[in-house]
Design brief:
This protein is α/β, with parallel strands linked by helices. It is 39% helix and 17% strand. It has a single domain, classed as TIM Barrel, CATH 3.20.20.70. The longest helix has 17 residues. The relative contact order is 0.14. Bound molecules: ligand PBG. Ligand PBG binds next to α6.
């Protein structure tokens, strides 16, 4: 007689057989996580041999350009394919017209040049396109009478993209959520001979409280007047994300991104299934801060939680993850 806990006439299906040993689990594992999946976001600040801890992101520091170059070499050694550079702009350089964004010698451009000189083709460099690091009111676009201007902003973003491409940026990543910016930037880059510069669109970017620590890191938080809800997406929406992505693909995006990450994996899965595009997600500053804070309190195993969260991105359909954990994760994955 068949002893079974199930009510069916068939033998008990023992799902646990495939979990019996480490080798068996490896054999049936559906998803892999490797260093190839990681993009390392870094914060650059003026100065020389300067490190400034970001309070709300324990373990993350703003680094001066020389130290960013060292980090880039470390990324190459670890096998990390790409890094993203974000500037902490001197508040004295922030203006309502965000003109520092177009300065070919601004902090980001200087850093990109220095990194490219040091590591050349061995590492991809991603630059955000948005005005918030340069705007005295902390918004991603130009502000007039309390409104965020779309088309006027897009014109500036095109110039910002060209300036960054000239500095050697490989991937332009518009994070501003203005309408029509991907197509306009593609056209502007092509007209300047930058056909090979890629566009990674922050296609589905939500108005999220999980960006708080990042705004500390780049110093845009204190400046921010109001919120970003008239351009970043409402986190109650999911169909709208598909329309945003469809639009960006039609305009020429090479890759698309969802942001934040872990609370938005349902969006990642829908986008991947619908478009089969290279799809990335950003494990944002607040997600990083939560894991770090819990780990610091001894409330969870930080390393294990980090690796689990990164695997979850892959399982949901991500081709890669922007994560502040990139160097730590790379070390663990390489061992
Ligand atoms: C700026 C930008 C933000 C992030 C990346 N680019 C913040 C924002 O939109 O306010 C957030 C990244 C993070 O929280 O780690 N356009």
């Amino acid at each position: 007689m068949i002893v079974s806990t199930s009510s069916s006439q068939f033998p008990l299906i023992r799902m646990r057989r495939n979990r019996s040993h480490a080798w068996m689990r490896r054999l049936v594992r559906e998803t892999t996580l490797t260093v190839d999946d990681l993009i390392w976001p870094l914060f650059v600040v003026d100065g020389q041999n300067e490190r400034q801890p970001v309070k709300s992101m324990p373990g993350v520091e703003r680094l001066s350009q020389d130290l960013i170059v060292e980090a880039a070499k470390q990324a190459v050694d670890l096998g990390i394919p790409a890094m993203a550079v974000f500037p902490y702009t001197d508040p004295a350089l922030k203006t309502p017209d965000a003109r520092e964004a177009l300065n070919p010698d601004n902090l980001v451009c200087r850093t990109v040049r220095a990194v490219k000189d040091a590591v050349g083709e061995q590492l991809g460099i991603i630059c955000d396109v948005a005005l918030d690091p340069y705007n005295s009111d902390g918004h991603d676009g130009l502000v007039k009478d309390g409104r965020i201007l779309n088309d006027e902003t897009v014109a500036l973003l095109c110039q910002q993209s060209i300036v960054q491409a000239r500095a050697g940026c490989d991937i332009i990543a518009p994070s501003d959520m203005m309408d029509g910016r991907v197509g306009a930037i593609r056209t502007a880059l092509d007209a300047e001979g930058f056909q090979d510069v890629k566009i990674l669109s922050y296609a589905a970017k939500y108005a999220s409280s999980f960006y708080g620590p990042f705004r500390d890191a780049v110093g845009s938080g204190g400046a921010l007047k109001g919120d970003k809800k008239t351009y970043q997406m409402d986190f109650a929406n999911s169909d709208e994300a598909l329309r945003e992505v469809a639009q960006d693909i039609a305009e020429g995006a090479d890759m698309v991104m969802v942001k934040p990450g872990l609370p938005y994996l349902d969006i990642v899965r829908r986008i991947k299934d619908e478009f089969s595009m290279p799809t990335f997600a950003y494990q944002v500053s607040g997600e990083y801060a939560m894991i770090q804070a819990a780990a610091a309190n001894g409330w969870l195993n930080g390393e294990a939680a980090m690796l689990e969260s990164l695997m979850a991105f892959k399982r949901a359909g991500c081709d890669g993850i922007l994560t502040y954990y990139a160097p730590i994760a790379a070390k663990l994955l390489n061992d």
